[in-house]
UniProtKB/TrEMBL annotation, chains A, B:
Domain of life: Bacteria
Organismal lineage: Bacteria, Bacillati, Actinomycetota, Actinomycetes, Micromonosporales
Protein name in the entry: MarR family transcriptional regulator
Annotated ranges, domain HTH marR-type: 20-151
InterPro entries linked to this entry: HTH_MarR-typ, MarR/SlyA-like, WH-like_DNA-bd_sf, WH_DNA-bd_sf
Amino acid sequence: MTDRIAKLVGMTAMAPSRTSPDLSYLLDHASHVLRTRMAAALAEIGLTSRMHCVLVHALEAERTQIQLAEIGDMDKTTMVVTVDALEKAGLAERRPSSTDRRARIIAVTEEGARVARQSQEIVDRVHEEALGTLATSNREVFLRVMNQLVTGHLAKPVEAPGPVRRARQHER
Amino acid sequence: MTDRIAKLVGMTAMAPSRTSPDLSYLLDHASHVLRTRMAAALAEIGLTSRMHCVLVHALEAERTQIQLAEIGDMDKTTMVVTVDALEKAGLAERRPSSTDRRARIIAVTEEGARVARQSQEIVDRVHEEALGTLATSNREVFLRVMNQLVTGHLAKPVEAPGPVRRARQHER
DNA sequence: TATTGTTATACTCTATAACTATA
DNA sequence: TATAGTTATAGAGTATAACAATA
């Protein structure tokens, strides 16, 4: 017996509240299910969401790993792993920056550009499949409200008190 | 430098798509930020979302750990940890079921009932703070659409091919 | 044989720390 | 001194397996 919901996003259903709709559940559940749909659709061409994200933004301009990490809300160490995967798949390459010898430009290969076009189609299709179930006027209001929330009250996460972290044990 | 967004939910910003709004980003971001707000608010009375969830549903009826796990979309092993925390905080107790000697009923203490009322108020307040920023008519449409998605196209996660798992190494 | 709850642990994910090369 | 990228690893979170007691 698998409990994939709890596994993938740590989702916890809130109690159904009597006074206020359970916005936490609605957003968590919708977000989680859409994520599984997206992951499954992109997996068919061998991509993760992160790989797609990096590919598309690396295509738009000459960008370093750090720049791409900021765009995709990833840590630089996560970016290393993602770029490793893209290189191994032959979709992108690390090239030395001409202006900063520390930095690497992520260059998308021809194959990578082809795949990026495909993956963008997949992303759009998955989104449209969901939005397509809505009446046109409802869809417009819904998207306006989501944008309003994401740029307003739900723009910035509140800081959690970070966990303590011991120094790493390294060999002499 | 912390990257809490990526850390907590593994969120990856999709590429801004030209043909379709980035529903993944909107839902992920809104869900994530609301989750941090809820976690911070509940932490003030020493609860996690899971503890709140179990507390409220255990109050409603005599329920076993398994039943509560199903309601909250948790694994039974996660439930053990959650009930441990509630017991340690003096908010709930394990009692033997009178009809099944394998099962434990989760009984909420008086203190637990008090805390559950508080936590439900907190949950409602956090939800209302978000929904309160919306115009009344927009709010109604938004909630109807979210419900439509969660009961319709985004009702069930698609199955991911589960990872392989070796047998556990146990001492003889 | 199947199920409840438990313990132990394997696995994934992701950030922190330390480090190298360069600015 | 600070930053880009890398490696190694710590830590959180959460599921799987095995097990004991009971059905």
